[in-house]
Amino acid sequence: MATEVNVPALGESITEATLGQWLKKPGEAVAVDEPIASLETDKVSVEVPSPVAGTFGKAMVAEGDTVNVGAVIATIAEGTAAAAPAAVQPAAAPAPAATAPAAQGHEVTDEQAAALRLSPAVRRAVQETGVDAAALTGSGRDGRLTKEDVQQAAQGKAAQPSAPVQPGAQAPVLAAATTGERREERVRMTRLRQTIATRLKEAQNTAALLTTFNDVDMTEVIAARARYKDLFEKKHGIRLGFMGFFVKAVALAARDVPSVNARIEADEIVYHDYLDVSVAVSAPKGLVVPVIRSAERMSFAEIEGAIAGYGKKAKEGTLTQADMAGGTFTISNGGVFGSLLSTPIINPPQSAVLGMHRIEERPVVKDGQIVARPMMYLALSYDHRLVDGREAVTFLVRIKEAIEDPTRLLIDL
Length: 413
Known about the structure:
Elements: E1 2-6, E2 16-22, E3 29-30, E4 35-40, E5 45-49, E6 54-59, E7 66-68, E8 72-78, H1 110-116, H2 120-129, H3 147-159, H4 176-179, H5 191-206, E9 209-217, H6 219-236, H7 243-256, E10 263-265, E11 268-270, E12 277-279, E13 281-283, E14 286-288, E15 291-292, H8 300-316, H9 321-324, E16 329-333, E17 352-356, E18 360-366, E19 369-383, H10 389-404, H11 407-411
Parallel strand pairs: 12-16, 16-17
Antiparallel strand pairs: 1-8, 2-4, 2-7, 3-6, 4-5, 6-8, 9-19, 10-11, 12-15, 13-14, 17-19, 18-19
């Protein structure tokens, strides 16, 4: 008896997804609730568990296909793998001698790819670079190899001295850069990347975007962090970063300028008496924005703990739709990648986003003297339909004042 596997409910307003990768192949044994496929939604990857124990029967859709919630994507034959007809495979015919071009260097058969659970992109990378996939340790979910793992291994291989070519052996084919060959690679955009592109373009087309800038002296925050970071980590088990200071400063400034934490809905303005901060986090498949809810009520430890937890989940690919739903204001920290200055784009339907940048010593005038100070540029992009220029500047100045004098965060100034 075969049991159908359906696309599970993916969250409010989400009706379809993309079949990202099959984690099982026909004939393989599966346990109850064992993941057999991964789906890519607009924001996250979701694994589809097997509803019963048995043998993977038939895949109804191919990787890259769009599937609707509730659609049947596979069947599971109940029972052991040995008893399932799909588990008995006929003897394989000899593979053609040139399944992949000789330039690929390392041929990966369908059986090997399935055993190692290689995605099409990873399999192609293995064939192009010539690395031994079986010898690599994957950094992806459940230890699966990623394209980056293969590329890093290939770079390490290239740095090693070349072994002498034995008599009668075929010499390795030189890289494209040596032969002058020019290559192109077409990779289908993930659903996440498509959604990011659509939403950012929507923001540009709909909102009246404007950006205002300021700079902030980070001397006092750096000193406070250096003074208390060891005690903070010892007591709370997490590191004290800079983001906690900025989240607290935004919460303070939003009380003075509530329009920055509001949104437009039809012909009405919706104001929030809470601050749900979307924190932009870099993930393997793109930028994601998990939400720190009711940040205005949270302590430094609670904020830093939430950020650390989301960062870990983003790397592991375990962020859920609920983690990223909502959000009334966004903070994006391009400084961790070395950005000096940028104009961030708002995350609809939010009306503003704060961009943080790298800290670097610059000459500034203090009390008539030119001194070196650790400075950071801040950028506030906002929807001018809702937020006036005066309000945007005031909001940014409030943040600057709180960061340059962190005592304000404690006495509510």
